[in-house]
Amino acid sequence: MADCCNEFSRSSLLRRAAAEAGSGLPAIEHGMPLPAGTGLDRRSFVARSVGLALAVYGAGSLRLPMLEEGIAQAASTAPPASPVLLSVFLDGGVDTLSLLAPVGDPDYRKLRPKLALPDSSLHVGGDDRLRWHPSAASFQTLHNEGKLTLVPAVGYRDADQSHFTSRHYWEVGATNAHLRTGWLGRYLDRVGSPDNPLQGLSLDGELAPSLATGRVPVAALRGADEYSFWAPGVWGEVNDKMLDAIGALGATRKSGDRALAAAGEVARQSDRLRRQLAPFKSGGLASPVPYPKVDSDFPERLAGLAAMLAAGLPLRVVALNAFGMYDTHSDQPEQLAEGLKVTSESLLAFQRDLEARGLADRVLTLVWSEFGRRAEENGSNGTDHGAAGTALLIGSRSRGGVVGELPALRTGLDRDGNLKATVDYRSLYCSLLEQWLGADAGAVIPNARAYQRVGLVK
Amino acid sequence: VRAAARIPVYTGPFGPEQAERLLWRAGFGPRKGEARRFAKKGLDGAVQTLIHPGREKLRGPAPHDGDGHRLAPGDAWGHDHVWWLDRMVRTSRPLTERMTLIWHDWFATSNSGVGSQTLMLRQNRLFRRYSLDSFERLLLAVTRDPAMLLWLSGTDNKKGAPNENYARELMELFTLGAGRGYTEHDVREQARALTGFENDWKRGVGPTNFRFERDRHDQGVKRVFGKRGRFDWQDACRLCLKNRSHPSFFVRKLWSYFIPTPPPAATLRALERMYVRNHYAVRPVVEAILRHPHLYSGQRMTKPPVVYTAGLLRAAGRPVDTDAWAWLNGLAGQQLFYPPNVSGWNDERWLDTATFLARWQIAGRVLRPLVLDTKTDQAPLDADKLVERALSFWGHPTVSPATRRSLHGFARASLGTAKSSWKQKQYPVLTENALRHLIAASPDLQTS
């Protein structure tokens, strides 16, 4: 994490602590908001019907068997056409002027003497000035097919340049440091059920704050392949027998000693969980299309999500962090190329997977970042925090084209030298709620009437 | 200071098994051969050695991180955790370190709210200094400790605009217990008594210059527990100690760190009297608990994750040579300096399927550098001998008959797969490695 700023690493750490502890996390500096969802109680269990290890948030009064029943029931009764929204977060603030290089803007090279990208054939349909980043060719493919709506300059007035604060604003759907539920969480509170935590699923193993609810439970999933027992210096048949022996250590559960019995019971449960999750380990998922083979969980989690949707799991909103670190204060070219390549290729594979499974009409993916980056490059081959950023809406039902425009660099920068937003992020949220999720935006987004609606769905 | 005659003392046999339990409960488990040496001292000698350990000596090589660099506990992420873990592993005063851990849990302060490893380490030194001293001096020192002042809003508690955060926890969690011996009115009045702490905020440094300013203190008359006076922060603490509910709260809570079942009524009363008569001295109460029959003949306790980790390192004779312990213990549910909330860690809920896996990984990390190699090491093709060798690796810990049967069952099944001659050479070595791991993960070593 050497290339990102200290505040970035710290806020990532804090968020992890928040989700793990689930207990009032005070702001580390004055004015820093608490992540939405902080303080929600968390319980872990395996949903036997689906073989997944889940951490469930906000189900305080429910017994675990009720949750399992709720999932099974929702899976059998949820209308098969209920729309799914996937939120993919580019962590750190992705650089708009590299993702969408404005090679046709006369000021681009002046602001980016080192980092400006060369002209290429990766034209952005609908705006002659722009070229896709060379590593984001998969986004061009989707855009050309009319399955990607591009929102080049999205944000809010007087953008906050703290990762922590700006991300919080995006997550809660308001520029309010004190709001504790996420915008998607409030949507679930209106349409969700009290016993189906899978309706709001975080795929990074910890609660995504945008999914934090006030009323109904949501869940976080750790990768099935993370639950394995490795021992140094043990392999072959001895390893097989050793794994069996972990369950055998559970023999002490019949002991008269409470602690010894409880530890034995846990050994036995762990053994059972390992066996249950074994079919989901890498190689256990049969995807109809190839996903990028990289050292990252991102493509695998998307593949797993497509498989879960195909299996009829009752999901409504899902959140996942994209591959890559976008807080590119230095060494931007390398960092950005790697992140964008894996992320865009994985999202294209996910779209193809959904198409092959006949699910493409049910899922839209919103790709977003907490802000864009400064128009002028810095002295260390990178860029600093900016204002307006870029959002993408991907899916067969996405309208395509460009919504709003990337402002000209001469006139479109604010007094800090940052891009001004041409679309408010709450316009996106309200439009998605109404056009895709069929919900009353006024009940989810504070002051929803103030935000102009934009056409996002066909 | 003499233990009161009314408090029962363990009179059964004091062999390596009893010494082993004492060393786990009052420290971080025995090094190899230590249980036997402590058993020879007898109960009195063993407890005296723990209670009066003399000057601290650190045994073994100094710790470093995974890259071989010296630790930077005040700055580098996780180094605070590893620095303390190393002290638990190498110290000649295990009870002092264990008491430091107990006070960290008792006055649970999290760096997630303090935001300064330096201030957290300063608080840690305070807990160590008063580890077996007087609870009164400890409480007074904690009340004006910068990390605590930040954590529970001590410097946000202003005359005319009181913040009740510390006042409430002072009574609810630190001295009296929820709903015992105080009212909401007392919380408000104690908050007034606790005003006057200030700090500055310096760019680049953060909070600094913590102090008490008499001018900023609410000098008016307060009414606390029915008494009236112009109370200040020291009075606020002493009023709590003198509250009728305090001695029983203190003894029960301290007892619960060493013995999982509550003290019998007569023992409780005797310990309370001893505590008050000795002006809130901690040492004699701990001494009496460590000599109590329930510690040796009663139920087992689940070891907290850092105690488990430090104990495995001690037993295996391994130094702290990686900062991975910070996240591994975090996965196991105990990241030092980051208790989950102000009431500390939940000692009832250490083990579940996720933390069990984390403990398995911790054991693997301890074992990795010591692993037997099929190219250079040999092991007998004999299940019984392999189990004995693996138990000896950990210094012959006590294991229950059920676990012993599981281990033997595994060793036989594992050797049973060695059907070719190369397997008969190599599988015993692999089996011994696996046995070491299984013993470390066994319910017997998860508990003491």
List keywords for this structure.
heterodimer, A: 458 residues, 10-stranded mixed β-sheet, 3-stranded antiparallel β-sheet, 12 helices, 14% strand, globular, B: 448 residues, mainly alpha, two-stranded antiparallel sheet, 54% helix
Give me the number of helical elements of chain B. Answer: 22
What is the approximate shape of chain A? globular
* Coarse shape of chain B: globular
Termini separation of chain B (Å)?
A: 29 Å
**Biggest sheet strand line-up of chain A:** 1-2-9-8-10-3-11-12-7-13
Estimated radius of gyration of chain A = 23 Å
The low-confidence runs of chain A, each spanning 5 or more residues with pLDDT under 50, are 16-31
Query: Structural class of the helices, strands and pairings of chain A?
Result: alpha/beta
Beta content of chain B: under 5%
Q: Residue-averaged pLDDT of chain B, rounded?
A: 95
Short description:
The complex is a heterodimer of chains A (458) and B (448). With 458 residues, chain A is α/β, with parallel strands linked by helices.
What features would you describe in this structure?
The complex is a heterodimer of chains A (458) and B (448). Chain A is α/β, with parallel strands linked by helices. Helix content of chain A is 32%, strand content 14%. Chain A contains twelve helices and 13 strands. In chain A, strands 1-2-9-8-10-3-11-12-7-13 form a ten-stranded mixed β-sheet, sandwiched between helices. A three-stranded antiparallel β-sheet of chain A has the order 4-6-5. In chain A, α5 packs across α11 and α8 (236-248) packs across α9 (258-277). The longest helix of chain A is centred in the C-terminal third of the chain and has 25 residues, at 332-356. Chain A is globular, with a radius of gyration of 23 Å. The relative contact order of chain A is 0.19. Chain B is mainly α. Chain B is built from 22 helices and four strands. Chain B has helices at residues 16-25, 34-51, 79-90, 94-106, 111-114, 117-129, 135-143, 146-151, 165-175, 184-193, 233-242, 246-256, 265-277, 283-290, 293-297, 305-316, 324-331, 353-367, 383-393, 401-416, 421-441, 443-446, and strands at 197-202, 206-212, 222-224, 227-229. Chain B is globular and about 90 Å long.
